[in-house]
Amino acid sequence: MAAEHADELTRPDAAWDPAAPEVQADYPAALARLREEAPVAWSDRWGGFFTLTRYADVVAASRDPETFTATKMTVIPSSPRKGLPRLPLQKDPPESDRYRKALNASFKLNKIRTFEAPLREMASKLMDDLLAKGGPVEIATGLVEPFTQGSLGILVGLDPEEAMEVGRLSHAYVEKVQGEDLPGAGELSRQVDGFAERLVADRVARLRDPETDIVSSLMAHDAAFTHEELAGMVRLMLIGGHVVPRNFLCSIAWHLATHPDHAAGLKDGSLAQGPFIEELLRFYPANQALVRVATRDTEIGGTPIPKGTPVALNFLSANRDANVFDDPETFIPDRSPNRHIAFGIGPHMCLGLALAKLQAQAIIDTLLTAPRLEMIGRPTFARWTEYGVTKLTLDLSA
Questions:
Q1: Is residue 46 part of a domain?
Q2: Dihedral angle over CA of 305, 306, 310, 314, nearest 10
Q3: 1, part of any domain
Q4: Cα 249 to chain center, whole Å?
Q5: pLDDT per residue over 20-65, tens digit each?
Q6: Strand 303-305 vs strand 298-300: parallel, antiparallel, or unpaired?
Q7: In the list 21, 183, 265, 290, which could disulfide-bond 270, CB 3.0-4.6 Å?
Q8: pTM given for the model
Q9: CB proximity list for 83: less than 8 A, separation 6 or greater
Q10: How far apart, in Å, are the Cα atoms of 368 and each of 86, 177, 268, 331?
Q11: Closest C-alpha to 75, from 313, 375, 245
């Protein structure tokens, strides 16, 4: 989506291209330059959009849905928008409140804590299988992807075969979007929609325990949701609940393998796991940026933003803003305070933060049981708008 009347104004000079090879090679370095030279940075990519790179601007825009709406666009390049709505992500308050209130029951901390035992058991079993095979292992496919698929299954109430199908579809869908293959992404999006619709139809026909099945929980809520609304909420979880956690958990594995002193500190208790996970979230936010669209002519930091212009809220950059974080480019295991916004902020703050932290705890503890955490070769990193490691090979053997 391009700005509605940006051509009527003098377009700013392009400050960056998030898809340029040199930027993809080191997003933090590119964003550090923008924070200094062009904190409201224009890119000519994908029809043109601004990127907010400073913490204060990202927070202010996140908290101002009247000026920066999520109803038009949430990622750039834009993913296919036909089919099911992604709820509540593609609604602004007060419309989004109805969906978030219903979902809160399944994402509140005391509910998420009930998943700890099965999540840890699953992670331990996956690690046992990897160690039994011996030799170098690809962590994404061998540990993280089946773990995130299984986690989503526990959260949403998926049967094992349903969880595996979700993993396949979501991974392929994101690859098509990032590769700008919109026809391919559109076809996969329709398949994800179909999965969500079939899942809802199954639960409508055979209601399950609302305590263990999220669709049944939503159906039991006071708000009366249509079949499409239920499927739209499931649709968002099917993608967001697998791909984003995969990147973050792979980044954790990479960090531990490349910082043996941190792994040792966690093992012997000299490093507290809670602050360590918060710093991991600050340093490796798996959602690098989400996009909003200006509802009116406005300006940020003296930069005019015409109505209809996409604006990327860059959480990775905000989390490394020296105006908020001391020595922001250094990973400080016990950083305090740590006001990171890896989960966003404001009315669209991610509901899954408690689950993400529990997953991190389980994966860290599981990785630390391996006799060795040694990198083999080089990892593969995610591309805009994601961030973090997507593939890495480790030697876990004794």
A1: yes
A2: 10
A3: no
A4: 11
A5: 999 999 999 999 999 999 999 999 999 999 999 999 999 999 999 9
A6: antiparallel
A7: 265
A8: 0.93
A9: 189, 190, 193
A10: 37, 34, 11, 19
A11: 313
The Cα-based distances of 30 to 2, 24, 38, 53, 103 in angstroms read 23, 9, 11, 10, 37
CA-derived radius of gyration, the chain: 21
Query: Above 90 in pLDDT, residue 296?
Result: yes
Alpha-carbon distance of 199 to 219, in angstroms, equals: 13
Pairwise CA distance, residues 130 & 147, whole Å: 13
Residue 157 structural domain: 6-395
Asked if residue 85 has pLDDT above 70, the reply is yes
**Is the four-CA dihedral 278, 368, 160, 164 of positive or negative sign?**
positive
For residue 8, pLDDT over 50 is answered with no
341 part of a folded domain: yes
Neighbours of 331 (CB within 10 A): 16
Assess contact for 389 and 247: CB atoms under 8 A. yes
Say how many domains are in the chain.
Answer: 1
Please give the single-letter amino acid code of residue 105: A
CA-closest candidate to residue 274, choices 323, 226, 337 = 337
* Contact (CB, 8 A) for 131 and 370: yes
CA-based torsion, 214, 234, 225, 343: positive or negative: positive
Q: What CATH number has the domain bearing residue 103?
A: 1.10.630.10
In DSSP terms, which residues pair with 386 in a beta bridge? 287
Q: Which residues make Cβ contacts (< 8 Å) with residue 388, sequence separation at least 6?
A: 247, 248, 250, 251, 284, 285, 286, 381, 382
**Overall residue count recorded for the chain in this entry:** 398
Other C-beta atoms closer than 10 Å to the C-beta of 144 total 28
CA–CA separation, 326 and 392 (whole Å): 30
> Which amino acid, residue 124?
S
